[in-house]
Amino acid sequence: MKRLLATAAAVILSMSCIDWKGGCLQADAAEKAQIYGGDTEVYAGEVAEFTVSVSDNMGFCNCGIILHYDEALVPLYSEDTHGQAIPDCQLGALAEDRYTAAAVNLETQTLAFGVSGVQDYTDDGMLFRVYFKVPDDAKIGSIYDIEVVMDLLSDSEQNSKLSQVITANGSITVTGTVRDVLDGDKTALRCDTEYALAGSEKEYTIDILENIGFGGCGMKLYYDERLTPVLDAAGKPSLEGGTALGGLEFSSYWEKDAAMMGISISGTQTEVCDGELLKLRFKMPEDAQTGDEFPIRIELDYFETDGHLSLIEYTEITNGWLAVPKSTAPRDPVSSMGDVNVDELVDISDVILLSRYISEDTSVSVSTEGKKNADMNEDNRYTAEDVVYILRVIAKLIEVKAAE
């Protein structure tokens, strides 16, 4: 590692042809710049980001840093053509458009990073970011320290600046596990159960419950080949994000012959909540008969947290369908309230379904229309009070108005 860093430093100091914006600032002897590691919180088994930044920057041109990391951590890296481990590294503004070199020594748990330019740069901010895999069996409260050591710091005149900088170490702290956060439950991905008449268009949703926050998802949505996705202006199946997407972005592709849509979701959730994740529309077959059901199912390729921890084993999928009601006669609007399973009857099966739904039984789902019918007291929530209202309707103790 020392030979590697010395080589990198020699290459850095020999650089003299890079066009780099910046200006030289003479430092007061009493002032010191700070180069420091960040403090990160993660779940056990996740990949943690570790950022090295600069503040109170008094101007430097060449920089060499060594990180000494805990032996329990595993850096993310790839090997070059010579078999040297090169860390996965994201450059900050202070290192962009400059020469950089980085390497990992897995035996000594050290990571070296060097940067060089031809002018002194005086801005503050991120220098670089690397990534470490935290042990799967890490205990809550475990702290993995990462020491930041300056090996080289000089200006464009090759004057050493090491005496004018202080360093601060960083750490990675394990704050929990997915099992602890879910408390024995599982994140639920639910395909809706919806009813629509033959030849009509129907909105269809994929919901998420027990959402603990995720950063990536790849899924395939398979639909009955007799259904026809409603297309957008670009000729692709119309797809919209729901409120539970929480700031994540999505993209999709369509394999028409396979009756399948591929969907990728990525980013960082700005708001973690349960509810509608994705929405699309289907056209029912013109020749569909009463009682016909058209299955819709999803398969997960990957589902992970921001720290790339797979959530698949902690996730339960409920597939759904679109169906033609058993009767196409006009619905009695007075009787629709309380009809949670949308079978045109208000009976004990609606009570059971709603009870299981509000107790977060992931093996059941309620359609959009069913949810509207279930909100008996019109408070935009689903609670035991709604269950009691339905029981009173069944007992003919009260009459209700139509769902609006």
Shape: elongated
CATH class wording of the largest domain? Mainly Beta
Under the CATH scheme, the architecture of the largest domain is Sandwich
Query: What is the count of helical runs?
Result: 5
Largest sheet: 6 strands, mixed
Care to describe what's here?
By secondary structure, this protein is mostly beta strands. It folds into 3 domains: 2-176, Immunoglobulin-like (Sandwich), CATH 2.60.40; 179-329, Immunoglobulin-like; 330-404, Type 1 dockerin domain. The chain has 5 helices and 26 strands. The protein has helices at residues 2-14, 178-182, 348-358, 368-374, 384-394, and strands at residues 33-37, 39-43, 47-55, 62-69, 74-75, 77-79, 85-87, 89-91, 99-105, 110-116, 125-133, 143-154, 165-168, 170-176, 187-191, 193-195, 201-209, 216-223, 228-229, 239-241, 249-255, 260-266, 275-283, 293-304, 315-318, 320-323. Strands 1, 3, 5, 8, 11 and 13 form a 6-stranded mixed sheet that branches. A 6-stranded mixed sheet has the order 2-14-12-4-10-9. Strands 15, 17, 19, 20, 23 and 25 form a 6-stranded mixed sheet that branches. α3 packs antiparallel against α5. The longest helix has 13 residues, at 2-14. The chain is elongated.
